[in-house]
């Protein structure tokens, strides 16, 4: 996201997020300080510091058809990617790892159209991933250009309010497809799964896994 003057105490999520401030638009990035399995919680979207907002800005996340969330924390420094490492699950008010899990040092990213129907500030994506959608302008316009780019075989996360606004049939969030991705991850990480506490989620940014 664009540089902005923080009104909160920094760092806001020191156990899980390292913000790398760089000059210039969209140059600031965040990296993970923790390893997470698929869908484990990186941070909760609590009130406070979050507040509800009636209009979208570059520092909000859309949480319903007509509701937005001012993050009021370093979570605003999580960039967009077309192959994101994170999911902003606004139905459960949590930021969770994507279906591939998360490793220390990974850039923290999420797919902005998964929460945003229209965007206050559109931009040309430079994520350079194979599935890059190019111009990112909110789910409404991404769908208008190419609907398949919103719901493809990568089991991309869309929040329920976006699927409803776009009239996309089927279950959203797409838990079934995501569960398959998680199962594939588990097969590829048998050793890692065995060596970790696997009951439930880690409980957000207060987990003992961070340095
Ligand atoms: Zn991209």
From TrEMBL:
Keywords: Methyltransferase, Transferase
InterPro entries linked: Flavunoidine_N-MTase (IPR053201), Post-SET_dom (IPR003616), SET_dom_sf (IPR046341)
GO molecular function, one term: methyltransferase activity
Keyword rRNA-binding part of the UniProt annotation: no
GO biological process: methylation
Keyword Transferase annotated: yes
Residue span, Post-SET domain: 121-137
PANTHER family reported in the protein's UniProt record: HISTONE-LYSINE N-METHYLTRANSFERASE-RELATED, SET DOMAIN-CONTAINING PROTEIN
Name of the protein in its database record: Post-SET domain-containing protein
């Amino acid at each position: 996201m664009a540089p902005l003057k923080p009104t909160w105490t920094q760092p806001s999520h020191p156990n899980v997020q390292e913000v790398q401030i760089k000059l210039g638009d969209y140059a600031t990035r965040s990296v993970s300080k923790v390893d997470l399995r698929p869908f484990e919680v990186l941070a909760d979207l609590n009130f406070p510091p979050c507040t509800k907002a009636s209009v979208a800005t570059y520092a909000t996340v859309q949480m319903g058809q007509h509701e937005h969330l001012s993050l009021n924390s370093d979570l605003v420094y999580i960039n967009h990617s077309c192959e994101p490492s994170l999911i902003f699950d606004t139905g459960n008010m949590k930021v969770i790892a994507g279906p591939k899990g998360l490793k220390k040092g990974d850039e923290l990213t999420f797919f902005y159209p998964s929460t945003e129907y229209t965007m206050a500030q559109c931009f040309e994506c430079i994520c350079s991933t194979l599935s890059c959608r190019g111009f990112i302008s909110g789910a409404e316009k991404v769908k208008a250009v190419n609907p398949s780019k919103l719901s493809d075989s990568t089991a991309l996360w869309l929040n329920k309010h976006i699927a409803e606004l776009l009239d996309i049939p089927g279950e959203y969030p797409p838990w079934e497809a995501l569960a398959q991705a998680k199962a594939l991850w588990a097969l590829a990480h048998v050793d890692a799964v065995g060596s970790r506490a696997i009951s439930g989620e880690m409980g957000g940014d207060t987990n003992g896994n961070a340095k």
